[in-house]
Each structure stands twice: as structure tokens, then as C-alpha cells.
Design goal:
Helix 8 crosses helix 9. The protein has an 8-stranded mixed β-sheet with strand order 6-5-9-3-2-12-15-14, with helices on one face. The protein has a 5-stranded mixed β-sheet with strand order 17-18-19-21-20, covered by helices on one side. A 4-stranded mixed β-sheet has the order 1-4-8-7, with no helix packed on it. By secondary structure, the chain is of the alpha+beta class. 48% of the residues are buried. The protein starts with 7 loop residues before the first helix and ends in a 19-residue tail after the last helix. The N terminus is likely disordered. It binds tryptophan and zinc ion. Tryptophan binds next to strand 20 and helix 5.
């Protein structure tokens, strides 16, 4: 890859019977000890406090209210919900591939963050058969993508609740997503299923608090015909054969945002090995994915090793990709198991998606406005990989070509600054390409030493949590000891393209 190329990543972006006993055992086995007592509601059949009865830690709240319908994202009113914080989703899914029908039980552990009478979750389409809270049946209401669950009794703040939602249907039939363009979610393509949607899509296949602020751990028990494989986030704990069906148990032990969850179902060939750092890598290739496409992923272990030197330790327990044998025109950085099609797998996109494990997956977004922290960083990471693998000249050529490209065509990409691209501009090319240039400009301005210390400090400080652009600026100023207000304002919050004086690059030289 000695030639400079403009990021193709972006151009393409247009883009019932469940084994209850085993699932329960599995959940108990997995679940980490909880600090809070679980709320049980008084029920007709069991007295509080009796052996086997609900654990009654019930405190009557003073002034309970419905939880908010949105978490407060300035771009998307309805996304996420208020009043609680999900800890863990356990998803038991029975998938009928011929009919594209799923039967699901979602068991969701959450902690209330206020006194509540009801709470909302996102769920798009699908039929809800039954909801229970703390083991007691609960009433619910559906209104397009929002489901309201009425708690059997008002609940105080800081209580652990376990919700169980039984549902079924064909996912993705209701196209009426909140942010339709990039919000596909579950997609059935005949001989396979992929799941990819950002900023939303998780709610096409399970009930969820659909915002990156509410990260949670996950466990999956996916039952499919025995000739199929299932790929998901985390690690494959075991496969249980049961006649012509098999159940695939996956566990994601690190908290992740809903848009980063995925499963893939098809007759995959599985490739497993350890990268140079000892990280387990497992790739799932669709049966018709060519050898040359498979080879495009051969450097992932080396990329992990290199990125660790510039970003800090790889943040999860595993890595891998699920490559479907169809041309998707995009890839999505679903945590530890990135979704690919077979037409878009060059070194740029392979390194870009891997870099998202640090930027987006480990360091999450506080709100969608901050998307530059994901896409600008992952795009610049590919340039860093280029520099590492092919030399500084290649990097310089790419930067100069990208600068020229943005100088000439930036106006067509977006009318909004990349630090506030608007709900429709989240995945605008400018966020990627100009976003990557901004980081290179910062590096040249401060020098390598300060720049890479900033990156590592930022990942270390916000990893496992969420960040906004102001957090990155604060780290940059803290580490460099400089006032960078003007620098960041020009690159992120104005539309005019700032110069990169160290490379003699100025937008005046590239008049349209
Ligand atoms: N985050 C993806 C990337 O740059 C791009 C993307 C945005 C996407 N929304 C999506 C991919 C929805 C699939 C589906 O790598
Ligand atoms: Zn990306």
C-alpha cells in the first residue's frame, strides 16, 4: 500500500422453545456478586421474608416519578432513557433462520438512579409476550420504538431490579427507527444474519437503554440449527448440542454500549490464533469469502501489538471479525467482534475498525455530538499504522493528499463543523478525514512526545467510561501545558480549514 489513498471507509458509508433451566444456570454461573439487594415485590403467593420468598428490602419511596423517555442526548431526544442504569443484559434467543423469527427472553439487571413508578426501554417492532419485574408480572405499553414498563410498586433510588421480557417476532420489520439512515440493526440475508447499526439498531433485536452512556455487560445464549455457527461479543463459553439444534453461549465481561453489540449467524469457518501479544483472535468467515479477503485480516495481531505502543494496552479479552459473504459497503466496530462484508476489507478499514476498540468501544461517547472522538481517531490510527508499516513518507503523502481533498471538497462534505456535525452529519466524511488531519496537526504542533502522551493519558483516564471533546482538549492542555483553545476551535468548531504550517499546507493554495 505504497500509494496514498483517500479513505474508502467513508465513501462506502451511504449506505420457542428456550432451554430455560440451562439459561438460568448459565446466568447464575456468570453473574458477578451484586452489591445491592435485589428488590422483590410482595406477591400473592409468597410472603416477604419467607424462605424462597422475595427478598424484601422494599422501601416506599417518597415521591416516585416515571423515568424520562430520553437520556438527554442533545441530538436525539428519545434515545436512551432516564432513571436507571443497566448492569447486565442476558439474552436467550431462539432463532428460526428459515422464517427469520426469533423467540427471546431478555433478563436485564439494572440499578435505579431515582425513585420510579415506571421506566422506558427502546424496542422496535417485535411482540412482547410478558414482562416481569423482580419476579412479578408488570404491565407495559408500546409506542413505536418506546416501551414503558409500569413497576408493580414504586421503587426507591439505588435499588437493583431484575427485569425479564419475553418477546418474539421478525426483527427489523419496523423501519421506523429514530435515526433511520444508519440504524439498520438485525439484518437477515437468507443464509445468514448480521447485526450492525450506529447510532441505533440494538432495539431491533432486544429491549435496551439505547445510548452509549449506559454501558453494560452481556451474555448470550443463541439457539440455532446445529449446522450454523454464532459469533458474538466477548468469548464463546460453550456450545451445547441438543438434537438438530445447538445453543451458543457467549459472554462479554467488559461493559459496552448497545450499538457495539452484535451477533452473526451463518455457516462460518472459524479461524483462531493468538496474536504476538498473546491476545486470542478468532475470525468468522462466511463460507463464500475468498482467500484473498481472508488474507486481508492477517496483520491484525501485528496491528494490535503496534497500537498498544501508541494507545496503551488492548482494552478487551479477545478480538476478531465476522466477515459475511456479501458486499456490505461498510464495517462496524462492534466490540471484540467487528462486522465486515467481503467487499470492503483493505488495510485501512481493518486497522480503522481495530483502532475503534480503544476509541469508541473502550472510551465511549458522552453524547453523539462527540463522534469525532471515534471517527477522527480511528481514521488517524490507520495513518499511524501506515507510518509504522510503510514509513514516514507514506504518511506525509497521505496527509498532504487528504489535506488537498478536504481543502477542495470540504464544503461538499458538510456545512457543519466536525465538533458539532449535527444528527444527520455524524458519519460525514469530514468527521473522518478532516478529523484525522486535526490530530496530525496537533501532533506537529506539540511534537511526538507530548502528542502520544496525550493520547495515552486520554485513553487511560476515560477508558471504560465516556468522554466528550472538552475532555480531550483538557487532557491536551494539561499534558502540553499550553492553551490550545484557538487550535481546537479552528479545527473542530469552524468550517474554514486551518493551515498545517509545519507541512506548508494552506487551504489558500487549493482554490476550487
Ligand atoms: N462506525 C462505522 C465505521 O466508521 C461506520 C458506521 C456508522 C456504520 N454507522 C453505521 C456501519 C451503521 C454500519 C452500520 O467504521
Ligand atoms: Zn469508524
Amino acid at each position: 500500500m505504497a500509494t496514498s489513498r483517500l479513505l474508502p471507509v467513508l465513501a462506502a458509508l451511504l449506505l420457542s422453545t428456550l432451554a430455560c433451566n440451562t439459561v438460568t444456570d448459565f446466568i447464575d454461573e456468570f453473574r458477578t456478586p451484586v452489591v445491592l439487594p435485589t428488590i422483590g415485590f410482595p406477591s400473592e403467593t409468597e410472603e416477604p421474608g419467607e424462605p424462597g420468598g422475595p427478598t424484601s428490602t422494599f422501601v416506599a419511596p417518597d415521591n416516585p416519578n416515571p423515568g424520562a423517555e430520553g437520556i438527554g442526548d442533545p441530538y436525539f431526544d428519545d434515545l436512551g432513557n432516564g432513571g436507571y442504569d443497566v448492569q447486565h443484559y442476558d439474552l436467550a434467543l431462539d432463532v428460526d433462520m428459515d422464517a427469520n423469527v426469533i423467540n427471546g427472553i431478555a433478563t436485564i439487571d439494572l440499578v435505579t438512579t431515582q425513585e420510579l413508578t415506571s421506566l422506558n426501554m427502546e424496542l422496535l417492532g417485535l411482540t412482547v409476550d410478558q414482562v416481569s419485574v423482580g419476579g412479578v408480572r408488570a404491565e407495559f405499553n408500546r409506542d413505536r420504538g418506546e416501551m414503558t414498563i409500569y413497576l408493580p410498586e414504586p421503587v426507591a433510588g439505588n435499588q437493583l431490579l431484575e427485569l425479564s421480557i419475553v418477546y418474539h417476532g421478525t426483527p427489523g420489520e419496523d423501519e421506523d427507527g429514530p435515526v433511520a439512515e444508519y440504524s439498520e440493526g438485525w439484518y437477515h440475508y437468507g443464509h445468514g444474519v448480521y447485526v450492525a447499526g450506529e447510532p441505533t439498531g440494538a432495539s431491533t433485536w432486544y429491549p435496551v437503554n439505547e445510548h452509549p452512556l449506559d454501558k453494560a455487560t452481556y451474555s448470550y445464549a443463541v439457539t440455532v440449527d446445529a449446522d450454523l455457527e454464532v459469533a458474538a461479543n466477548g468469548y464463546l463459553q460453550r456450545i451445547e448440542e441438543n438434537g438438530d439444534k445447538s445453543t451458543h453461549y457467549w459472554i462479554m465481561e467488559d461493559p459496552i454500549a448497545p450499538y457495539l453489540t452484535t451477533i452473526g449467524i451463518a455457516q462460518f469457518e472459524v479461524q483462531e490464533y493468538q496474536g504476538p501479544t498473546g491476545l486470542p483472535i478468532r475470525n468468522y468467515f462466511g463460507a463464500d469469502v475468498s482467500q484473498s479477503v481472508r488474507d486481508d485480516f492477517a496483520l491484525q495481531g501485528e496491528m494490535v501489538a503496534y497500537f498498544e505502543t501508541v494507545f496503551g494496552p488492548y482494552p478487551f479479552q479477545t478480538y476478531g471479525v465476522v466477515v459475511h459473504d456479501l458486499d456490505l459497503g461498510f464495517a462496524l466496530e462492534t466490540a471484540t467482534m467487528v462486522v465486515f462484508g467481503d467487499g470492503f476489507t483493505d488495510e485501512y478499514v481493518v486497522s480503522h475498525e481495530l483502532a475503534h476498540m480503544w476509541f469508541g468501544d473502550h472510551v465511549g461517547l458522552k453524547s453523539w455530538q462527540n463522534i469525532w472522538l471515534n471517527e477522527g481517531f480511528a481514521t488517524y490510527a490507520s495513518e499511524l499504522w501506515n507510518e509504522h508499516a510503510y514509513g514516514r513518507d507514506v504518511l506525509d503523502e497521505n496527509i498532504a493528499a487528504n489535506y488537498q481533498y478536504v481543502a477542495m471538497f470540504g464544503d461538499f462534505m458538510t456545512e457543519s463543523p466536525i465538533g458539532n456535525p449535527g444528527p444527520d452529519g455524524l458519519f460525514n466524511e469530514a468527521v473522518y478525514v478532516r478529523g484525522s488531519l486535526a490530530l496530525h496537526a496537533l501532533r506537529l504542533e506539540l511534537g511526538d512526545r507530548a502528542f502520544f502522551e496525550i493520547i495515552k493519558t486520554y485513553v487511560e483516564r476515560f477508558g471504560g467510561g465516556n468522554a466528550e471533546i472538552a475532555d480531550f482538549i483538557a487532557v491536551s492542555e494539561e499534558v502540553s501545558g499550553q492553551d490550545l483553545g484557538e487550535f481546537f476551535d479552528g479545527w473542530l468548531f469552524q468550517t474554514e480549514l486551518p493551515p498545517i504550517p509545519e507541512m506548508g499546507l494552506s487551504s489558500d493554495d487549493f482554490e476550487e
